[in-house]
Amino acid sequence: MSIRPQPTQHEKILGEGDFIVSKTDLKGIITYGNRVFITMSGYSEEELLGAPHNILRHPDMPRVVFKLLWDTIQAKREICAYVKNLAKDGSFYWVWANITPSFDSSGNLIGYYSVRRKPRPEAIQAITGLYRTLLEAERKAGDGQPGMKASLALLNQTLEQKGMGYEEFVFGL
Description:
Elements: E1 19-24, E2 30-33, H1 35-41, H2 45-48, H3 63-74, E3 79-86, E4 92-103, E5 109-117, H4 121-141, H5 145-162, H6 166-171
Antiparallel strand pairs: 1-2, 1-5, 3-4, 4-5
């Protein structure tokens, strides 16, 4: 699994009634995946369990989106986002993801729980352009912090121009 699949233009479509469910530990290592998760990813359960969730990261996804996700869930808050995932065979699939922190009985953060469903096609059309722009800003500014800062500044500028926060923006798509 150390070799990333070569992305293709083949899109898998999540069924209307399907939900992808997964759990990770605090470092994003997969500890559970339901049947739909296994099927859509193209990996076996054995390949997924113990693997970092970012094995599904599609190169079309701007890194700043994952920074926002991680910053939010590590602050013990839930977040929703549109995510383009990369399957083992190189195909891709879009999801509307809800990611929540998981707590033990004492209130300690112990991991993360995510439920993903089929996104509306109109939302994907809208978010694709923004993600392309953010990714381009990351590439132009360079790897690491410069790219992340440029992309984050652009995302914040976009949200400010729309007069709304991230959550209001994604729920409005």
